[in-house]
Amino acid sequence: LHMAYPTPLEKSNSAARLARLFAKAMSASPQKSTLDAWAFSFDLTESTQGLDLTHEVTDMLVETTRELRSMRALLADFGVPENLLSYYVTYPEQAMVATNLSAPWGTTISNYMKDEVLLSFAWYAYILPEEASTTTNEELGALTELLAELEDALKAPGLPRFIVDTISKHLAAIRRAIRLCPVQGTKPMKDAARALTTDIQLDQDEIRSAADSADKSAMSRVGDGLYKVWKKTAEVAGDADKLMKTGQQLIEMATDVIDKLN
Asked: What is the pTM of this model?
């Protein structure tokens, strides 16, 4: 039996996010495979199956390992001795390696997710400072709805392939950032918002040219949806003020396309 250990629900830093992730994984049945237990902790079990599930879980575990190592480096910067990090941080990383994914979750718990390991992450969460930028499930839900609306708009006939492919690439990146938020916080969202801003700025001439030959009503709906998604992504990332200045060309492009087509 495992003791009850505190989960830092109110904290916002890498250790707190990892502690919450591990706590959720610990609630999975010990009879499940380690792969299925991690899939449960990442909320992937209902949306993905088979080989796709394996790929998505593996991708999430790679990103979780990066967050784990980033946390370790930050704790070392704050003066936490190496002997308080090596054991407790290395063990969860071992639980996430690909060779252990087929093992029963109960075995992985016994080998790598011991009580003292889980307790250490609760302590780490109180050592590390709070992050300035945070988000909520409600904000992520609102962004997900806007993504769905834009994806629906991209299915309309009469849209140039260049525009569909360009925007779809960024929608996939934003969806991935949403999945990573419980592990890495708002940084992936900030990266996605800035990548969208940069690409639209670089490709604005091609986008305007493609829009000239597009179905007017379909392009208007896409331009409006793109702006809403970009703005909400920047807000969720806590980067709206900076992007509202540096991303002015995106606003002008979307507005120009919509006004020109109406």
From this structure: 0.83
